[in-house]
Design brief:
Blueprint lengths: L2 H15 L3 H4 L1 H15 L3 E5 L14 E6 L2 H4 L8 E5 L2 H6 L5 E7 L7 H14 E8 L10 H9 L4 H10 L2 E15 H9 L11 H12 L5 E15 L2
Parallel strand pairs: 1-2, 1-4, 2-3, 4-5
Antiparallel strand pairs: 5-7, 6-7
Helix pairs in contact: 9-10
The chain binds S-adenosylmethionine.
The site of S-adenosylmethionine has 18 residues, from helix 1.
Length: 240
């Protein structure tokens, strides 16, 4: 998706985004925090593609720098004393910094970078921090939406095998952990999220395809929507 379109997408979805059931699930945040918090406590942390900064604010960093191109996402929460916020794309920001960070976080934002840009971004992370933490929904996740939306998700989300190759190419050492979060939500809420194009892959689906897709889900006549949300966490450090 072109950069301007991504920014517009997030500027428009901020209200629904903060109420996503995924973010309210304890399994999801507890799993991530149990690995990430010990690495960020009293450290300097840069969160690229931070969105609302909701997650990185939980990390007890000594200093937290949040970067995101969406002004609306970034201004959703008040500025904390230990925090800086910058409206910028991640690569541009890293190319212009003059200080190093202990940890850089790339949480659920890598799918917005082309493969070439992913490599550039990860190289800049390698050069500017000791540890890079990646959180992503892999492209083999299956969601109970409609065919076009699933195709668009598969084409526009992170392929873990190619990400691993990039980390190896850049001389990172890394560990990878996977979590399956069981999700159960009323189908009315799921349909509303889809109509609001809650995830950016739905921005590739035309209005007509979205209407047809909503109908495809409605005729299944399910009261509740059940699925496993797969989350991959990778902690990458210098291989020195
Ligand atoms: C799915 S949201 C994740 C937000 C946050 N990290 C979280 O986990 O809640 C993806 C975020 O990536 C940001 N983003 C998209 N393209 C970006 C880029 N080129 N540089 C930095 N951030 C970007 C979007 O604006 C959006 O806030």
């Amino acid at each position: 998706m072109a950069y301007d379109r991504i920014v517009k997408h997030y500027d428009n979805v901020v209200d629904t985004y903060i109420n996503l059931p995924f973010y309210l699930k304890h399994e999801y945040s507890d799993f991530l925090l149990s690995y990430i918090k010990p690495l960020t406590l009293d450290k300097t942390v840069l969160d690229i593609g931070c969105g609302t900064c909701h997650f990185s604010e939980l990390l007890n960093a000594k200093k937290l720098t949040c970067v995101d191109p969406s002004k609306e996402m970034l201004s959703e929460r008040p500025l904390l004393n230990n925090q800086e916020k910058h409206i910028s794309d991640g690569i541009g920001f890293l190319k212009n910094i003059h200080s190093q960070y202990d940890v850089i976080i790339l949480k659920e934002c890598l799918h917005h970078f082309s493969d070439e840009d992913k490599l550039t971004l990860l190289k800049l992370c390698y050069e500017n921090a000791n540890t890079t933490i990646i959180v992503a929904r892999p492209n083999d996740n299956q969601y109970p939406w409609f065919k076009k939306a699933q195709e668009s998700f598969e084409n526009n989300s992170v392929k873990i095998s190619s990400l691993k190759n990039m980390l190896v190419e850049l001389n990172f050492s890394f560990i990878k952990e996977t979590l399956l979060v069981p999700i159960k939500i009323p189908s009315g809420q799921w349909l509303k999220m889809i109509k609001n194009r809650f995830w950016s892959n739905l921005s590739y689906v035309s209005d007509i395809e979205l209407l047809k897709g909503v109908h495809e889900i409605q005729i299944r006549d399910e009261k509740e929507i059940l699925f496993n949300d797969k989350i991959v966490l990778m902690i990458a450090t210098h291989n020195k």
